[in-house]
Amino acid sequence: MATTADFKNGLVIIHNDDLYSIVEFQHVKPGKGAAFVRTKLRNIKTGKVLPHTFNAGVKIDIQRVERRPYQFLYKDGSGYHFMNLQTFDQTFFDETLINAPQFLKEGQEVEILFHSETETPLSCELPAYVELQITYTEPGERGNTATSAMKDATVETGATVRVPLFINTDEIIRVDTRTGDYSERVKS
Question: Of 109, 5, 118, nearest to 63 (Cα)?
């Protein structure tokens, strides 16, 4: 058992019978009264951030989690199939564990977060940005960059992304997986 003195950003603890990661914390020692620790905790499964205040010295239960590199192989009726890049074992995960399944393409590397004690997968995280080829969009208009007008484009994974008017079919773009927004055109 650890105490609030052991808090650090990224530490995973059990709080209210669920796994939470400490996003930020601050030790507060008021002039009058007992010290306390003000924190922001992110739920590992849902991603929601909630504020919580702990009394100083309270016992906490630290949990060990591991990030393991995996490669996405394919998707079928039973789920998304991945291969561990260290052991080459194949396994599949449910879509609910993946943060942006619409941008997952075959051969892409991801990190899967595992709870070390129970060996259960907690989440699958894509890189912050992925490069995808546009399979269909309306024809582009050259020189039309003065306005911030956007149009729909379908990428190779089947997802729809809003892109600027000058983007054409078969171009490669960089997409932010956290928001699903167009970031930039990749120069070839």
Answer: 118
The alpha carbon of 19 is separated from its chain's Cα centroid by a whole number of angstroms, namely: 16
- Angle (CA) 62-67-72 rounded to 5° is 145
Burial grade of 16 (CB within 10 A; 0-12, 13-18, 19 or more): exposed
pTM passes above 0.90: no
Q: How far apart are CA 83 and CA 69, in angstroms?
A: 9
**Structural contact between residues 37 and 7, judged by C-beta atoms closer than 8 angstroms:** yes
C-beta separation of 52 from 41 below 8 A? yes
User: Residues, the chain, total?
Assistant: 188
Range of the domain at 54: 2-63
27-64 residue pLDDT tens: 999 988 899 999 999 988 877 899 999 998 899 999 99
Q: Report the 10 Å Cβ neighbour count for 177.
A: 19
* CATH number, position 159: 2.40.50.140
Work out the pLDDT band at 160, boundaries 50, 70, 90: very high
Name the nearest CA neighbour of 159 among 138, 184, 128, 180.
180
Residues 96 and 149 in one domain: no
Per-residue pLDDT band at 2 (split at 50, 70, 90) = confident
